[in-house]
Specification:
With 404 residues, the chain is mainly α. It has 17 helices and no strands.
């Protein structure tokens, strides 16, 4: 990366631009999640078949995410993000067009691949903005992602309530979000590689410094992916609720995540990363117990809301910790992103497989156990937390503006 100085107002503007990109990315995810029951019915799939199809998202992400670094290296961060966010928003249409299992597998493979590449690119820019500002911003950026997912899921809830065809819904959403994403990406920092900088490898294992941090993110994102893609199905199939109420459960989950992430930076600064994650793990585990034991829709909905509240800040803290850990922050960030994002795309398929063999209740027992792991193993963030505080404590004057 070239050693470039930026004016502080330019960095602040870039922060808002990256936040807007996070919002657009989340809106695509929220739109998709609320219409999973429609996609399941349209393709005539059982729970196991749906889980199998969703697994192709993980495969697509695993194959494509390592390419994001090379694309950014070749094109520069701004141009790369423009292209990748457009690819992601337009891929929303594909799953709704699939009439059967095989075409749905292909559609979700492309959906996962484009999502993963855009995710890595925008998180790398978020960490760069955090470094230049000298204070924590990653939780707030992920809060904007959750806000976007909330907006997308709210629109999906309305579309489900109106009985709208998901093909029309997704086409309109994709067109709108593509315009917003490309415009916002035009204002991010244009980070260029140094003249003598080697391009990143097409594939590299995560560095050792990222493995434990990535394991924490794995637990949180597994719970997030399971809740996003199966909360509506859980309410509709197990409790025989309406499509609108089932979709509203996903919306409630995203609402608590958005609220927690937006306020997350202040909480972490007050109590520290370790205590924040431990408390979140306890909340998420309690939410999981409510889901498993619920005999009424209101209890299950409350459980999903608590799950979202508990896991909300874990992923932002993992990305921030990776940025401050080890000699190669970029590689560590990519490693954590690969582990956590793959978890989110594997989770729905594993939930479906367990549900097919047993029941959705047993599936969410697995999610609850992983939530307990957050509380037990939060201490792995302690070393990275110290590094993060050292990084954040640097004065703003360390980022001077460009000289004429």
């Amino acid at each position: 990366m070239k050693d470039v100085s930026y004016e502080r107002r330019e960095v602040k503007r870039a922060r808002y631009a990256v936040a807007a990109v996070f919002t657009v990315h989340g809106a695509v995810t929220g739109s998709f999640a609320t219409r999973v029951p429609w996609i399941q019915d349209h393709a005539s799939l059982g729970a196991g078949q749906l889980g199998f199809a969703l697994a192709f998202g993980a495969l697509g992400a695993s194959c494509a995410m390592p390419l994001a670094g090379r694309i950014s290296h070749r094109l520069g961060s701004r141009t790369a993000l423009r292209g990748l966010i457009a690819l992601w928003t337009l891929s929303l249409i594909l799953p709704s067009l699939a009439p059967d299992l095989y075409t749905l597998c292909l559609a979700i493979f492309l959906y996962g691949a484009s999502s993963g590449m855009a995710d890595v690119a925008m998180n790398a820019l978020g960490v760069e903005v955090e470094r230049l500002l000298g204070k924590s911003v990653m939780s707030g950026l992920h809060g904007m992602w959750s806000t976007g997912a909330l907006i997308g899921s709210a629109a999906g809830t309305l579309a489900a309530h109106l009985g709208a065809d998901a093909r029309l819904h997704f086409t309109l959403a994709a067109a709108t979000l593509t315009v917003l994403g490309v415009v916002a990406a035009g204002w991010v920092l244009d980070v260029q590689p140094a003249d003598d900088e080697e391009p990143p490898p097409r594939f590299a294992l995560p560095p050792r410094s990222a493995l434990l941090i990535g394991a924490m993110g794995f637990c949180a994102v597994f719970a997030e992916g399971a809740s996003l893609d199966w909360s509506a199905v859980f309410l509709r199939n197990r409790m025989d609720t309406s499509a609108a109420l089932a979709a509203a459960t996903t919306t409630g989950f995203m609402l608590t995540m958005a609220m927690a992430r937006i306020s997350g930076d202040a909480v972490v600064n007050r109590f520290g990363a370790v205590r924040t994650v431990r408390a979140g793990g306890v909340l998420a585990a309690f939410g999981g117990l409510l889901i498993v034991l619920a005999g009424y829709p209101a209890l299950a909905m409350a459980g999903f809301a608590l799950m979202g509240l508990g896991i909300a800040v874990v992923v932002p803290l993992c990305f921030a910790a990776a940025g401050h850990a080890g000699p190669n922050p970029s590689q560590a960030i990519a490693g954590v992103a690969t582990i956590t994002y793959t978890s989110g795309l594997i989770a729905p398929s594993l939930i479906g497989g367990v549900a097919q063999a047993t029941s959705l209740v047993v599936s969410f027992c697995v999610v609850t156990a992983l939530a307990c792991g957050l509380a037990v193993f939060a201490g792995v963030l302690r070393t990275a937390e110290r590094g993060g505080r050292t990084e954040v404590s640097r004065p703003a004057a360390a980022v001077p503006g460009p000289r004429p």
